Amino acid sequence: MTDPQLSPAARLFVALDTPDRAVAERLIRLLSPYAAGFKIGKTLFTAVGPPIVAAALDAGARVFLDLKFHDIPHTVAGATAAAARLGVHLCTVHALGGRAMLQAAQDAVAGQPAGVARPILLGVTLLTSADQAMLEEVGLTGTPETVAQRLARLSIACGLGGIVCSPREIAGVRRIAPDDFVIVTPGIRPKDAASDDQQRIATPSEALAAGATYLVVGRPIIAAPDPVAAAQRLLEDIAAS
Ligand code: C5P
Q: Is 186 contained in some domain?
């Protein structure tokens, strides 16, 4: 079940997909009042590191650290514990890393000492860039949709707090997930916006109606001539849903 109490801004994470610290800090300053927080992924974190997480937290925003950990269980547990110590709210691991890795990551979250915030651990099901040919080449059986559903089930079975999935998979996952399960979806485009390279897109209202908890939006906001106006328009779309 999604929380109907969340305000439109509390639904939105803006993807800071830039390697430039000054650009990211400007976007944080401009957009903090219009979003729950910011998604910091591999590009920005590799370029700038923990100080950009601190900058977002200092602005009063939540951080979604999207580093999609995938390694042996011990290493992923260590990385997840380090993410928790940064104070992030959401953190991703690849569900393809398997049961032992997912459980080790979840145990690392649960094992944080008092005083360290426990992030919500999200399993990344299948990247939207994966198509049938790619699955066959790496030896995964089923369609992208059935593989994503299988990985969502595994994430739930391992006690993760949520998943990242495409708009197309939200409703199916919502049917099998615990009530408080967090579903985060990228691939969101306002009506009439460019799809960029996203294949499976939805409008904010479609994604929320299907059961998304949080929407991740990057280029439609950060590449807009006026990012604040773009964010405000998106919040209007959310409010209208
Ligand atoms: O610019 P755009 O709104 O397409 O940004 C979406 C963000 O969500 C990007 O940071 C992208 O890497 C991320 N993402 C995605 N599809 C996934 C997982 C993450 O678009 N399956």
A: yes
Tell whether the model's pLDDT for residue 1 goes beyond 70: no
Measured in Å, residue 115 CA sits from the centre of ligand 1 at 31
Domain extent, residue 208, equals 9-239
Residue of minimum CA distance from atom 5 in ligand 1: 218
From atom 19 of ligand 1, which residue's Cα is the shortest distance away?
A: 186
Cβ-defined contacts of 85-89 (< 8 Å, 24+): 85/112, 85/116, 86/50, 86/53, 86/54, 87/53, 87/57, 87/63, 87/117, 88/53, 88/62, 88/63, 88/64, 88/117, 88/119, 89/37, 89/62, 89/63, 89/64, 89/117, 89/119, 89/120
User: What is the total count of domains within the chain?
Assistant: 1
Q: 39, 42, 68, 191: which one is catalytic?
A: 68
pLDDT at position 128, please? 81
112 part of a folded domain: yes
CB-defined site of ligand 1, < 6 Å:
15, 17, 39, 41, 127-128, 164, 186-187, 196, 198, 216-220
Q: What CATH number has the domain bearing residue 93? A: 3.20.20.70
pTM of model > 0.70: yes
Ligand 1 centroid vs 113 CA: distance in angstroms? Answer: 32
Indicate whether 204 belongs to any domain: yes
Q: Is residue 143 part of a domain?
A: yes
Q: Whose CA is nearest to atom 15 of ligand 1?
A: 186
pLDDT of residue 4: 59
What is the CA(137)–ligand 1 centre distance, in A? 23
